[in-house]
Amino acid sequence: MGKFMESVDTRALRFVAGFPVMVAAAFVVTAFLIRADLPEPLAVRWTADGGASFAPFAAYVTAGALMIVAAGWLVLSQALPVRRPVLMRRIMMGAGLFLTLFVTSALAAGLIGQAGLADARESRVDMTVLALGSGAAVSLGVTIAMVYKADQQWSPDDDRALQLAIARELDPDLSRDSIRLWVHARSSVFVMIGIASVFPAMLIAIALPWLGALLVILAVIGAAFLCARVKADRRGLKVLLAGVVPVMDVPAGAISAASAAEVRAADFGGWGYRHHSGTAAMLVSSGPAVVVNKTDGQRLAVSGGSQDSAARLAEVLTRVAARARGGGDAAAGQADS
Q1: Among positive and negative, which fits the CA dihedral 122, 128, 129, 131?
Q2: Which of 46, 74, 302, 305 is the most buried (most CB within 10 A)?
Q3: Which of 307, 264, 283, 268 is nearest to 226 (CA)?
Q4: Would the pTM count as exceeding 0.70?
Q5: Which residues pair with 238 in a beta bridge?
Q6: Closest of 227, 204, 229, 230 to residue 216, by C-alpha
């Protein structure tokens, strides 16, 4: 029992176990409230020639309640295992709530369609009840899928966060040796890209919609090339184009010097990622940047955002490079001895 409780989301378990039961109980109570207006027996299936299959009221209500509970438990329980992907658990939670309410709506529509009739063969499923119930089921299912916090009680991310907290406690300088920043082109550049692409795309889309959409997609890709995520820590420098594509990954030990400077993008081949003759650059505009010299003679240039952030980035890279070289020199000295 202990292993089972550790493998499931215990907070969601109470909801998964209780919700279908409560809905089924509400269905049974409501059915008994309108019992006097229902014929006996009740129709459970209608045929095209006007015939119907029948079942006693007690059987209809009991089977309906069991169907509600079974459908709810079957799908909602798939959201409980904590080892499953978070997205899958959210989808199953929403789908289980939807299915529970949809089955209830279908059973209720069958009952309401027979209310006030002496002969169940004259009845039909009440489409208004079915439509309203189904719509509510869909909306509530989507809502619960969005708000359900499907997190593990203790995940690998928690382990990493704990290790980082311990490392910072033991090494107060660790936070000083780390910087994360986004760099991007000026807003006027993105406005220019939008004007130069969206308006022509609207005109082209009148004749060739796919070509207009392609032009907008190319503009978005072009704008993404003018954004980058810059990370620097004791492992070195890493630059991600558009925050996703890694274009630079320089170990701290491979850095000989780093300095903040005002650069012209044209001197390094232009905006975006450039690599030519031993020089790599990721510049989103001319202006503040960090120029990095590597131990192998190559050179890098990375946009630094503002002057302050560029100076801080250069300071961090200089410090972690010196630390890495010092550790390497110490290790070399121990090996020689």
Answers
A1: positive
A2: 302
A3: 283
A4: no
A5: 231, 249
A6: 204
What is the DSSP pairing of strand 299-303 with strand 287-294? antiparallel
State both tokens at 278.
């031993």
* Closest C-alpha to 123, from 21, 222, 53, 198: 53
What pLDDT, in 10s, does the model give residues 69-112?
Answer: 999 899 888 888 877 788 888 888 899 999 999 999 988 888 88
Structure tokens at 119: 């002969």
3-state SS, one letter per residue, for the chain: CHHHHHHECHHHHHHHHHHHHHHHHHHHHHHHHCHHHCCCCEEEEECCCCCEEEECHHHHHHHHHHHHHHHHHHHHHHHCECCCCHHHHHHHHHHHHHHHHHHHHHHHHHHHCCCCCCCHHHCCCCHHHHHHHHHHHHHHHHHHHHHCCCCCCCCHHHHHHHHHHHHHHHCHHHHHHCEEEEEECCHHHHHHHHHHHHHHHHHHHHHCHHHHHHHHHHHHHHHHCCEEEEEEECCEEEEEECCCEEEEEEEHHHEEEEEEEEECHHHHCCCEEEEECCEEEEECCCEEEEEEEECCCCEEEEECCCHHHHHHHHHHHHHHHHHHHHHHHHHHHHHHC
Smallest Cα–Cα separation from 97: which of 217, 12, 183, 214? 12
Distance CA 245, CA 226 (A): 12
Work out whether the CA dihedral 204, 206, 207, 212 comes out positive or negative.
Answer: positive
Structure tokens at 151: 């997190």
CA angle centred on 69, ends 68 and 75, rounded to 5° = 95
Model confidence pLDDT, tens digit, residues 184-209: 888 888 888 888 888 788 888 887 88
Asked whether the beta carbons of 247 and 241 are under 8 A apart, the reply is yes
